[in-house]
Specification:
Blueprint lengths: L1 E9 L5 H11 L18 H6 L7 E6 L2 E7 L7 H8 L4 E7 L6 H12 L5 E5 L8 H14 L4 H4 L3 E5 L4 E3 L11 H10 L11 E3 L2 E5 L3 E10 L1 E3 L3 E5 L5 E6 L2 E6 L2 E5 L1 E3 L3 E5 L9 E3 L22
Parallel strand pairs: 1-3, 1-4, 4-5, 5-6
Antiparallel strand pairs: 2-3, 6-7, 8-10, 8-18, 9-10, 10-17, 11-16, 12-13, 12-18, 14-15, 14-17
The structure holds guanosine-5'-diphosphate.
Subunit structure: Monomer.
Enzyme class: hydrolase
EC number: 3.6.5.-
Length: about 300
């Protein structure tokens, strides 16, 4: 299946959780009449119930036959290194900005990292329903922020949508259209965000997020750089200098599907998955086929090579 990997960047309370809930609903992840009890990117009652700690929250939706993996980005400066690692897994970002508040410190911090890793964000001005919305000024503030953060001309030429995540719509104009929905946002992600680039050769993946799970043990999430990985496959882990960290076997592969993480038999280059079964491999290590001799390097990150116009 074709893929897109994106991050959503927003200051706290600008409406990220609400928007992702709506994206899940409108992409048909929830069955009809099913009540949405858990919020996708909230603190995660489902995970708590199962004893799973999710450090970086991710979800996926399907739109027109394309799977869109959506990763959350911690907004706090304490997570600087983690933010960069997470952003290096994605090829695009939605910068969600409150139409009244405008860009705030967290927006600035994470946008700075996103521009640095070469992403070309989509800007979504949210909460346009607010009586005190000031969309045009907010767009100017976002432009000034990008410019102050040394955005390239391409990055400054960001596509813009306006809308209300709560009311379930986004549109190229501030007026709510008669057929309002989130379709313009989904379509823009498909058009503007490049497909993940895929490396040559056997399975390789940089460990990006590490978690401890009481049932599965150590779980490492990353984007598969090349090849594919199967459940029960022998893999090894190399550190940044190419030294062997461990030899082991993948006991489980988990993919993000809607709100859940689903075990799958096989995963392919470009996808973001979590793998269990290794006991020492950590963040920035290369998880790979036993035939691989060279590690991948977590930094620097090349800007996306595919350029698409909006
Ligand atoms: P997060 O912290 O970015 O995840 O923000 P939430 O999704 O939790 O939303 C923060 C607050 O803003 C909540 O009270 C939401 O009900 C409200 N909110 C979210 N989207 C909208 C919107 O489109 N319009 C308005 N007026 N309020 C919204």
């Amino acid at each position: 299946m074709t893929l897109r990997n994106i991050a959503i960047i927003a200051h706290v309370d600008h409406g990220k959780t609400t928007l992702v809930d709506e994206l899940l609903k409108q992409s048909g992840v929830y069955r009809e009449n099913e009540r949405v009890q858990e919020r996708a990117m909230d603190s995660g009652d489902i995970e708590k119930e199962r004893g799973i700690t999710i450090l970086a929250k991710a979800t996926s939706v399907e739109w027109k036959g394309v799977r869109i993996n959506i990763v959350d980005t911690p907004g706090h400066a304490d997570f600087g290194g983690e933010v960069e690692r997470i952003l290096s897994m994605v090829d695009g970002a939605i910068v969600l900005v409150d139409a009244a508040e405008g860009p705030m410190p967290q927006t600035k911090f994470v946008v700075g990292k996103a521009l640095k890793v070469g992403l070309r964000p989509i800007v979504a001005v949210n909460k346009i329903d607010r009586a005190d919305a000031r969309a045009d000024e907010v767009i100017n503030e976002v432009f000034d922020l990008f410019a102050a953060l040394d955005a390239t001309d391409e990055q400054l030429d960001f596509p813009i949508l306006y809308g209300s995540g709560r009311d379930g719509w986004m549109a190229p104009e501030t007026e709510k259209p008669a057929d309002a929905s989130l379709a313009p946002l989904f379509d823009l992600v498909l058009d503007h965000v490049p497909e993940p680039t895929v490396g040559e050769g056997p399975f390789r993946m940089i460990g990006t997020i590490l978690e401890a799970n009481p049932f599965l043990g150590r779980i490492v999430t990353g984007r598969i750089h090349s090849g594919s990985v199967r459940s029960n496959q022998a893999v090894k882990v190399l550190n940044g200098e190419g030294k062997l960290v461990e030899n082991g076997r993948v006991s489980k592969i988990l993919a993000f599907r809607g709100l859940e993480r689903q075990p799958i038999d096989e995963a392919h280059a470009g996808d973001i998955v979590a793998i269990a079964g290794l006991s020492k491999g950590t963040v920035a290590d290369t998880f790979c086929d036993p035939s691989v001799t060279e590690p991948l390097h977590a930094q620097p990150i090349d800007p996306p090579t595919v350029t698409m116009s909006f």
